[in-house]
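fyi for ur records
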Amino acid sequence: MTVKGELALREELQRLKTVDRPRIIQAIADARAHGDLKENAEYHAAREQQSFAEGRIQEIESKLSMAQVIDVTKIEKTGKVIFGTTLRLINVNTDEEVTYCIVGDDEADIKSGKISVSSPIARALVGKQEGDVVSIRVPSGIVEYEIDLVEHL
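which gave:
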């Protein structure tokens, strides 16, 4: 995972532990004060939130403990596409430019230009150099991109 991805997970973990967990515990206590728990919808909703939050805390802690964090800014700039680099690609047929950052699976967000290293696009690009033309199979067919720029941001 990238340094930014690790930071985002750590921030989410901190929020879950310091904000969400105490809020949920208080909601459970308030619902208990209303009496019969069998038919108390507020209690069951709060318990469900607690289950989700605790599961997410465990998931994030597990990911962080097994993560290999790669700081691409400390890697020599060779013009080669590797994990963590940001690429500017030019569609050979339409001259349309797109920019992607190759990130870990948990960080991927196509709307913000972050593609998973395991995606077909990233797999086709990793290992290529600036100036290379790469044919990538996408749902609409095969698209050829020229790798215009490889940045270590």
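The helical segments are 3-32, 41-66, 120-125. thats all i got for now
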